[in-house]
Amino acid sequence: MGGANPDRGKSISTVLGRRLGGELLRMRVQRKLGQSVAATALTASVAKVAKMERGLVPMRDPDVRALCHLYGEQDEAVIARLLELAKADRDRRRAKGWWNQYPELRSLVEYVALEDIATGIRTWQGSFVPGLLQTSDYAGALAVGNAHWTDPEEIGRFVEAKMARQARLTEDGPLDLWAVVGEGALRQLVGGRDVMRAQLAHLTKAAELPNITLQVVPFSTGSHPGMTSAFSIVSFSEPGAMDVVYMDTTSSTLWLESETDAARHNATFDRIVRNGLAPQESLALIERIREEL
């Protein structure tokens, strides 16, 4: 038998790889350079450059730096973010992220890998409290109500992984989270009255953090742009530069990675925000709902 191929399993497209490749492709096109020029700079084949830009292969730091130099990118913050993205993609392919300890995350694994290196997330949820703002009891009750999980131990590990994600909100260089939630999500008795009272109190406490903006779209708004679907917009640098949109349905996980899709969902999010209450009014509504319980 021959030795194991170290590249086996690496020639797959990942969200992280496509995001990195897409950003480098954008830089190359702006400079009006062909793939052959990039290939020469890397002492590689045109086919290799094409694979990089499609997110099919992991990228080494020297290659990222060389391409940034070739494309005239001098902002060290932008270069550092691309290097971080490249490292995260390599670690994801090698299963080194903490999230890979939790097979219970299933389709969420790719999203959590992105969340771990993101600088900001704008999320709209009409039916339930966003995962980054859930209490463990609420998350557990939500999982019990989901037909995907039946084993209590599996549910416990899924909840543990969800709680681990929330460290991004309080660590150094915390994630900026802008969460807009439908009033229905706050009134749905997930886990019962005690669990919901604690969950609503947790939302109020979380909103005190300077990196968290929380708004509620009340029932009184009526029809609004967010009624058809929930989504999260994940950002990695300056607004709009490297955004990807994540949508999770009952049957599949959908990633929207084009600039057009990101722009459309950012515009939709802005319209949902305009239909929501201001942050202080939102907290007042949350407190009223909690008192009613």
Topology record:
Layout: H1 15-30, H2 35-42, H3 46-53, H4 61-70, H5 76-93, H6 109-117, E1 120-125, H7 136-144, H8 152-165, E2 176-182, H9 183-187, H10 193-206, E3 212-217, E4 231-235, E5 244-248, E6 253-256, H11 259-275, H12 279-292
Parallel strand pairs: 1-2, 2-3
Antiparallel strand pairs: 1-4, 4-5, 5-6
Helix pairs in contact: 1-5, 2-3, 4-5, 5-6, 7-8, 10-12
Strand content: 5-15%
| Secondary-structure element order, N to C | HHHHHHEHHEHHEEEEHH
Distance between the termini: 66 Å
How many domains would you count in the coordinates? 2
Helix content: 40-55%
Query: What is the CATH superfamily label of the largest domain?
Result: Endonuclease Chain A
Structural class: alpha/beta
Gyration radius (Cα, Å) is: 21 Å
Can you describe this structure?
The protein is elongated, with a radius of gyration of 21 Å. The protein has 12 helices and 6 strands. It folds into 2 domains: 15-93, lambda repressor-like DNA-binding domains (434 Repressor (Amino-terminal Domain)); 98-292, Endonuclease Chain A (Endonuclease, Chain A, 2-Layer Sandwich). With 293 residues, the chain is an alpha/beta fold. The longest helix has 18 residues, at 76-93. α7 (136-144) packs across α8 (152-165). It has a 6-stranded mixed β-sheet with strand order 3-2-1-4-5-6, with helices on both faces. β4 and β5 (244-248) form a beta hairpin. The protein has helices at residues 15-30, 35-42, 46-53, 61-70, 76-93, 109-117, 136-144, 152-165, 183-187, 193-206, 259-275, 279-292; strands at residues 120-125, 176-182, 212-217, 231-235, 244-248, 253-256. It is 48% helix and 11% strand.
